[in-house]
């Protein structure tokens, strides 16, 4: 009968020592742990200036706005009949008012903000991808076409609002093209259309620029192999281009969503303040603050901050937008954690019994 046995002088941990006992596994190196701790302290030291700036610029104003939202306007003191010298503490009253009769203006601004974000970002994504495909093609005069596409994004928003205000004037180019007399800068759905057109014209090149950067890193061999296999241009775009530019496209759409949610200057200059058709949350908060109602203005700003935060978390968690570029490393860590690492067993000599 055949059997197996371990050759003399060997063990699962390693070869036996001079005394016949198996050698112990190697001890961990202390120098490596000391180097890791030193690298961590150096990393914290290098990041500390950035954290300090973020604390001053982001965290402190956010906490101040949260504290201000818990106070009401000064108003008249019923006990003395004079204007209060300090703002009274009202707790969550400014937040509760949005669910009452006084919250109609807030919800109008909320839905306007959401409508502008969904429509403009959707149109900008389609047009931006088309711009990126055009700029990526090799043809005569491509540099001039790229410059012409990127010029609107380089124009300041205030200047862009003034330009489109002249275009949408009663005697402007828009009415000449439409053939009807439309008052674009007054109340109504046409005011929303004017804001959408101006916003898409200005910011669609931003998405096109980021998608172009993603297109330029795709190897040409992938498309050559697809053409050899008989894939049409539409199938190449759907099965090769879109999956490979998805990370850049998601980041571009996320940035545009965050920017559109805090839209203020374009509708403010193009249409005007206190217009129910185009008033956004940022415009509402600014109007409340300009009327010395800092408590409600801070409450609206905090709600807008939470809205933006939820949208950002949804993009990162649900859609998989990789903002820090460590998605592949995270996937490898999950694979190593989920899988069981195999250690090759020591070879054994086969001998006959």
Quick summary:
The chain is mostly helical and 353 residues long. 64% of the residues lie in helices and 2% in strands.
Number of strands: 2
By helix and strand content, what is the structural category? mainly alpha
List low-confidence stretches.
9-14, 326-353
Helix share of residues?
Answer: 55-70%
- Overall shape: flat
Order of helices and strands: EHHHHHHHHHHHHHE
Beta-strand share of residues: under 5%
Can you describe what's shown?
The chain is an all-alpha fold. 64% of the residues lie in helices and 2% in strands. The chain has a two-stranded antiparallel sheet with strand order 1-2. The longest helix is centred in the N-terminal third of the chain and has 39 residues, at 30-68. The chain is flat and about 85 Å long.
Which terms would index this structure?
mainly alpha, 13 helices, flat, 353 residues, single chain
Topology:
Blueprint (H helix, E strand, L loop, with lengths): L1 E3 L25 H39 L24 H4 L7 H33 L5 H13 L2 H11 L5 H6 L10 H27 L4 H9 L4 H29 L3 H6 L10 H10 L3 H26 L7 H12 L11 E3 L1
Antiparallel strand pairs: 1-2
